[in-house]
Amino acid sequence: MGKRVVVTGMGVISPVGNNIEDFWNGLVSGKNGIDKVTLFDASEFKATLAGEVKDFDPSEYMEKGEARKLDKFSQFAVSAAEQAVRQSGITEAVDSERLGVYFGSGIGGFDTIISEYNNLLNRGPKRVSPMMIPKMISNIAAGNIAIKYGAKGPCLSIVTACATGSNCIGEGYRAIKDGYADAVIAGGAEASINPLGFAGFINCMALCESDDKDRASIPFDKERCGFVMGEGAGALVLEEYEHAVNRGAKIFAEITGYGSTCDAYHVTAPAPDGVGGANAIEQALRSSGEYNPSNVYINAHGTSTPLNDKTETNAIKKMFGEDAYKVHISSTKSMTGHMLGAAGAVEAIASVLALNNNIIPPTIGYKVPDEECDLDYTPNKAKQTDVDLALSISLGFGGHNACVAFKEV
User: Fold this and answer.
1) Is residue 251 in some structural domain?
2) Does 162 qualify as catalytic in the annotation?
3) Catalytic pick among 338, 373, 400, 403
4) Do residues 86 and 185 both lie within one domain?
C-alpha cells in the first residue's frame, strides 16, 4: 500500500489571481483572465489574446538582485513555491535530506533564449550573458526552489509538455508513498507569451485566432477553434500523512491516486479513441476507494481545441460509462488560458479547492453545445454541490496523459 500522502500547502501565480484566495475567488466568480496581449506588439499576428499574469511583483517573494538572475518562469515558480511553503510551514519541520522538489516547465526560459540570441546577432558572442544557461534551462526552477529551501532530497524536473505539472505532482506523490522523502514541493511554471512562442503555436494551428476574449477559450463549445496561451505557476507541498499529523499541519486533501500513460500516437494530436487518457484516469482511481459519480469533480484538460475536447470526453466516457453523465466537469482554462507546463499544477490546486469548498468552478464562455461533447461541463456559473473526489487531468504534446486524484482526509 505504501505511505499516505497529503497536501499541506498551495501557492499560485495566475491570470486570475496571484495568491490562493484571489485565484479561487476569480474562478468561482467566472473571472476571465484573457485579454489583448500586452507583453509584445501582436498586431501582425493572427492570434492576439493571452492569459497574462497581471500585477506580479517578484519582490514580494525575493530580493531584487535575486529576481534579476531569474527568467520570468523561475520568478513565477519561486513565488508560488514560497506561498505554499509559508502556508505549510514545512521547512521548519522536516529534515532537509527528506525534503524533495519535483518542479517542471514545458519550455523553460523562453524569454532568456530570445533576448540572448538577439544579443548574439546584434552585439556579438562576447555580449551573450554568462547567466544565459542557468536562466533558461528548464530544470532550473526546481534547482532554484531546492537552493532556496535547502531541499537535499530528490530533486527532479519533469518535462512532459502540458502534462508537466501533473506529472511532477504525481511523481512527488510516489516518492513520498515509497519512502524516499517526507515532503515534496511539487508543481510547474511557464512564461512563454512572446513573439516566437506565438508564431510557433500559430503556425502549428494550435492557437485560437478570435479577437473576442469572451469567445476565445471556450472548452467543449462547438465553436471552439484553438487554445489561448496563458502563463504562471502552481506549487503544492506534499507531505507524508503521519508526518503532517504529528506536527499539527493543516491538511487540505489526500492524494489517493495517480495515473501516467502515453498515447504513442502523434506528436501533437491525441489518439481519437481516448484510451490513453482513460487508462490514466483508471490508474488514478484504482487506489481511491469507492465513490459516488454524482460527487465526483473532474478538472478537465479542456484546451478548447477541436480534437482535445472531443478526445477527452471520449476518455471520460470510456472510464465512467453511463455514469459519465453524472460527473461534474469543468475547464478552468476558459478563465486562465492554457498555462502549458504550469497548467497541471494550477488545475490540481483548483481541484483541491473545489473539494474543500464543495463548489464546482465553471466553464465560462460556453454557448453552443456540441453533440460530441455532451457531458456536464458546468457552463458559465459555479455550482454548489457535494464533492467527495476530485480528479485533475492533463494531456500533453507527445501523447502524455496524467491524472491525479484527491479526497478529503
Assistant:
1) no
2) yes
3) 338
4) yes
